[in-house]
Fold:
Amino acid sequence: TLLAVHMAFYFAIAQKQVSITVKVHGYSGSSVSLYKVENGEAKRMSFRWPAKNDTCVFNFSLDQETVFYLGKTGGKGSDHKYVLYLKPGENKWVNAYLTKASIDFDSCKIVKPNAETVLLQKWTNILNDYCVLGANRGKREQFIAEYGSFVKKADQLKKKAVLPNKHFKQLYISKIDAEIIYPKAAAFFNFGRRMNAEYDTSEIHKS
Structure:
């Protein structure tokens, strides 16, 4: 139908190619996994094996701004340490660092990250650090004592999301509001598999 033709045309216009080039320093044979966030849940989109110069490239079409995570395949992907906010048409270069004993990348440095990626990485670091503290049963009292500070840091970050990108601001605040609940709930299950298997923010983010 004519409507279907028009919809396909506009969809094709909205789709733009993006690329993520990952240079793995200290490469020891593991592939690189890319996770895409859909409905509040990070799902593995694909993986690549570094080849020439220990580098791999993810090329795909994107029709809207999206949150991605990068990680070493087989590592602790559920931690989702390294975040990347991509807009249609963007191309990014990432330097990932490994040692032989690394479970996941030791660090990831994005060359010229956009402001959205910087804010997301700050929150990711705060959340993961607090969860690591909570997973240590020997530091449970410290975990409880620092909850107020954790919430304060989250509020401060939300106030920093003063960007022209209104879509991102709404997404960012919603993400923090949803994920700030996780450590308290996960602590009840000692951050075990039972909690991590059940916790899902997808319903919160659905519109």
Remarks:
- Residues 38 and 202 are 8 Å apart (CA to CA).
- Strands lie at 16-25, 32-38, 41-48, 55-62, 66-72, 82-86, 91-97, 107-110.
- The radius of gyration is 18 Å.
- The longest strand covers residues 16-25.
